[in-house]
Amino acid sequence: MSGRKVLITAGAGGIGREIARAFAAAGDQVCVLDIDDAGLAALARELPGIRTSRCDVCDLADIERAVPTAIRLMGGLDVLVNNAGIAGPTSPVEHYDPIAWDQVMRVNLSGTFNVTRLAIPFLKQSRQACIIVMSSVAGRYGYSNRSAYSASKWGLIGFTKTLSRELGEDGIRVNAILPGAVAGERIENVLAGRASVSGRSVDDERETAMAAQSLRRFVDPKDIAALALFLASDAGKSISGQMLPIDNDMQYAG
Predict the structure, then answer these.
(1) Which residues contact 27 (CB under 8 A, 6 or more apart)?
(2) Is 159 inside a domain boundary?
(3) By residue range, what is the domain housing residue 235?
(4) Which of 66, 80, 19, 17 minimizes the C-alpha distance to 46?
(5) What sign does the dihedral 222-224-230-231 (CA atoms) show?
(6) Measured between alpha carbons, how far is 27 from 24 in angstroms, rounded to an integer?
(7) CA-to-CA separations, 90 to 18, 56, 82, 87, 247, in angstroms, rounded
(8) Could you tell me the CA-to-CA distances from 130 to 60, 81, 111, 171, 246 in Å, in that order?
(9) Mean pLDDT of the chain
(10) CATH code of the domain in which 31 resides
């Protein structure tokens, strides 16, 4: 199933960049939306032919401009990857900044909602339509001192299940990927945030994170990209409404 038209949010770095690389390598048309201008430019240099557009998923007007434009430039849409998300601060609920809470919800939940609702009419015209939502193990277990992030990731699971029921009759498959601790800059920032709250060292927090999973390593973002590619392929045609952990067998969250 090559030549699909794929839209990826927050695809200029991290997990999203690996997903963009994977779909491009499969011969698909790919358009990446992100707020990282430098990252978008670097991705365009790396992958000639990829489309990129600046889009802030906190800004409704920006979404309503960028999403339909990107889809029309590709000539339609087969795969939507909702990858945009932020971690928010590390803080107990009683001290959590309500402005920061709202920001996490705007990006992680409302951003995903708005991108998806605009994409659905185009996906309904595809014979191989698929939506992938990036949730987290935080949507399975919850995280201490990460209330907004955890709540948003649980919300994305509810959103995924609802979409799968609504869109099944149109042949549109909807699944969520739930990564654990993923190697890269974000997990290092998370560990530093945990250390600042606990008073322990970053290395101590890293060891605690490793102790929660049977495979003592961080998840390779390339493996998450491979899972996304599988879900969008014909091999995943019978999979919908599912929450797929990719977390090195995490037994609980910190």
Answers:
(1) 2, 3
(2) yes
(3) 5-180+220-245
(4) 17
(5) negative
(6) 5
(7) 26, 23, 23, 8, 21
(8) 23, 8, 18, 9, 19
(9) 93
(10) 3.40.50.720
* Terminal alpha carbon distance of the chain: 40
- Cα 116 to Cα 99: distance, rounded to the nearest angstrom: 24
Per-residue pLDDT tens over the stretch 110-160: 999 999 999 999 999 999 999 999 999 999 888 889 999 999 999 999 999
> Strand pairing partners for 54?
34
**Domain contains 68:** yes
Q: Is residue 205 part of a domain?
A: no
Q: Which residues contact 208 (CB under 8 A, 6 or more apart)?
A: 254
Q: Is the pLDDT of residue 1 over 50?
A: no
Number of domains in the chain: 1
DSSP at 111: I
Inter-residue contact 126 to 76 (CB < 8 Å): yes
Catalytic residue among 141, 143, 149, 252: 149
The reply to whether 96 belongs to the active site is no
Q: Name which of 161, 146, 6, 170 is nearest 85 in CA terms.
A: 146
- What does the alpha-carbon distance between residue 205 and residue 193 come to, in Å, rounded to a whole number? 10
